[in-house]
Amino acid sequence: MTAMSTVDGKTVRVALLGCGTVGAEVARLLTEQADELAARAGAPVELAGIAVRRPDKHPELPQHLLTNDAAALVESDVDVVVELIGGVDPVREWLLTALRKGKSVVTANKALLAEYSAELFEAADSSGADLYFEAAVAGAIPLLRPLRESLAGDRITKVMGIVNGTTNFILSAMDSTGAGYAETLDEASRLGYAEADPTADVDGYDAASKAAILASLAFHTRVTASDVHREGISNVSASDIAAAKALGRTVKLLSICERVEGEDGAESVSARVHPVMLPRTHPLANVGGAFNAVFVEADAAGSLMFYGQGAGGAPTASAVLGDLVAVARNRVLGGRGPRESAHAQLPVRPMGQTPTRYHVSLDVADKPGVLAQVAQVFAAHEVSIAAVRQRDRHDTASLVIVTHLAPDAALEATVEAIGKMDVVNEVVSVMRVEGEDS
Ligand SMILES: NC(=O)C1=CN([C@@H]2O[C@H](COP(=O)(O)OP(=O)(O)OC[C@H]3O[C@@H](n4cnc5c(N)ncnc54)[C@H](O)[C@@H]3O)[C@@H](O)[C@H]2O)C=CC1
Ligand SMILES: N[C@@H](CC=O)C(=O)O
Ligand code: NA
């Protein structure tokens, strides 16, 4: 082990709130790696208490550390609060109290951060405490620290990726084995990927919270979850997956945050979560299971890709412990982690005005002039067509149209108008598209 002379700081006393999937792994690693962590932090990092709902349900944990009174544990003689309960209430008040009293906070709670990071940072500033949350987005992947620190000197233009493991696990299974939605979701819960209420995953709330956090850090602007356009995967059907497959594409739930420049040159931020069809050759198309991957584009750095385990107890605990060592080091050496950076305050662009591309798959009457009629509706909405594929059946035909970029509202209106045409039997699948086909 490293010479003990480097571990001469005052013991850092840690309160752990919540001991479920992630908390249990944090408690295990903190105990098993105590000496290593002390050497890295420069001081012993000691688990001073664990708040759980039912202490009698945790015979595996050191009984003298357990309490069911999280508020009292926060107020006790601890230096750092590690919050792994989740949700907004009552956690928000506990963390505000901790920060105002100078106790640093490490949390994986994206739902809380996506709505209340401004007041949490303000509380941290009032006492000089630290607020770290690497585990809140893309689990084990170091992503927030690069955005907050490594790229602080660059101008980020886009952050796009898969940031919800549960939905990626489900979509990957639907695509590869044709497995059913419900059974795959149960499996994701059993493996510890899904949120306590998995509708947060499948309806896109979790990915929207993460998009809000990413957009805030990338664009130095306060973006909350309610600013993020959100669509989940519950409407992704077997027909959508089949339509994608037929064209060499796959379906992924993406969080997309980008700087958008208006015609007047004014910049705004677009933050959105929705299913996307990607060419199978796209690097994000091959991200399977609960893995996450995020592309960051910046003016000077160019394109960066971050990839790894986005969910699960041990991977998430890795990010939590990394933050804990950072916080402990700051205490030992007297420094402080980054504060909120929201100086740019760019406006958030409504989804309708955000440029997107659509893939539209139609079942149409198989007679002359149908393609021209459909094309006319696109033209009437000033949506330009990038590619068309027609396949004849008996007395109907399948028509697949991929558009160029157009305002999302214009695309939506086009699809609505097409659905009402006499020659269109059915709008089989509509999905946004990213990436170029090879
Ligand atoms: N599971 C994962 O893969 C990831 C989870 N996260 C986040 O980490 C946090 C924890 O997630 P999980 O460990 O998966 O959740 P979990 O549901 O397994 O664990 C939460 C624990 O908190 C306990 N709890 C609830 N109210 C409490 C109270 N008043 N006092 C003490 N304990 C209380 C629950 O009994 C439960 O054991 C959440 O914010 C989640 O969004 C972040 C990244 C990945
Ligand atoms: N439920 C989340 C857990 C990690 O953030 C997910 O599936 O990604
Ligand atoms: Na992370």
TrEMBL record:
Catalysed reaction, written as an equation: L-homoserine + NAD(+) = L-aspartate 4-semialdehyde + NADH + H(+); L-homoserine + NADP(+) = L-aspartate 4-semialdehyde + NADPH + H(+)
Annotated catalytic residues: K210
Binding annotation for NADP(+): L17, G18, C19, G20, T21, V22, G23, A24
GO biological process: methionine biosynthetic process; threonine biosynthetic process
CC cofactor: a metal cation
Entry keywords, A to Z: Amino-acid biosynthesis, Methionine biosynthesis, NADP, Oxidoreductase, Sodium, Threonine biosynthesis
Pfam families: ACT (PF01842), Homoserine_dh (PF00742), NAD_binding_3 (PF03447)
Pathway assigned in UniProt: Amino-acid biosynthesis; L-threonine biosynthesis; L-threonine from L-aspartate: step 3/5; Amino-acid biosynthesis; L-methionine biosynthesis via de novo pathway; L-homoserine from L-aspartate: step 3/3
Residues the entry annotates as binding NADPH: K110
Binding residues annotated for L-homoserine, in chain numbering: E195
NCBIfam families: PRK06349.1
Name of the protein: Homoserine dehydrogenase
Protein source organism: Amycolatopsis thermoflava
